[in-house]
UniProtKB/TrEMBL annotation:
Lineage per the UniProt record: Bacteria, Pseudomonadati, Spirochaetota, Spirochaetia, Spirochaetales
PANTHER family: ANTIBIOTIC RESISTANCE PROTEIN MCBG, PENTAPEPTIDE REPEAT-CONTAINING PROTEIN
SUPFAM superfamilies associated with the record: Pentapeptide repeat-like
Gene3D superfamilies for the chain: E3 ubiquitin-protein ligase SopA
Listed name of the protein: Pentapeptide repeat protein
Listed InterPro entries: 5peptide_repeat, PA_immunity-related
Native species: Treponema denticola H-22
One Pfam family cited in the UniProt record for this chain: Pentapeptide
């Protein structure tokens, strides 16, 4: 059972990461992860809020109900990942690749994303509200029921995606 008061220390987490492919109910908030290999791991009900990820391999990652709110994610590889019911609210995501991933019903509200690829991904019913998106690519994506409300966009591409099934509003009201 998740205990918000019990924070997992970094060294303890590294041991758990080595020993187990599936981790549940961990409070990993505020930690810094650089150059770690999270590939093919599974996390359920974990919080990484206010953590920093740099040059991490998160390919083929499996996430359910995890929190990355206000994280900094820089130069990470999330290709071929399955991320559902998770939150990246207020996160800063730069130079990161989510290509060919299942990103279902996730919260990306208020993110600042730059040089990010979601190409060939399924973003069904995810939310990008009040977000700043610069050089972000949603090419050949499923955007059914995805919300892009009051988001600022600069150099964003939706080529070959089903934009008619997504909901868009202008980001002029967001400063």
């Amino acid at each position: 059972m998740f205990n918000f008061d019990k924070k997992t220390e970094y060294e303890d987490f590294l041991e758990l990461l080595k020993k187990s492919d599936s981790l549940n109910s961990l409070n990993l908030s505020g930690l810094e992860f650089e150059g770690l290999d999270f590939s093919k791991k599974s996390f359920t009900g974990c919080t990484f809020s206010n953590s920093k990820f740099k040059n991490c391999n998160c390919s083929n990652l499996h996430l359910r109900m995890c929190f990355f709110d206000f994280c900094e994610i820089d130069s990470c590889n999330f290709q071929n990942s399955d991320i559902q019911f998770s939150s990246f609210g207020g996160a800063k995501i730069i130079r990161t690749d989510f290509k060919n991933s299942e990103l279902l019903q996730n919260n990306f509200n208020g993110i600042r994303a730059e040089d990010v690829s979601y190409n060939d991904s399924d973003l069904y019913s995810s939310r990008f509200m009040f977000s700043f998106l610069k050089n972000v690519y949603f090419q050949n994506c499923n955007l059914k029921k995805t919300l892009f409300l009051y988001s600022k966009e600069d150099g964003v591409s939706y080529k070959s995606s089903n934009t008619r099934e997504a909901v868009f509003t202008e980001g002029d009201e967001f400063v």
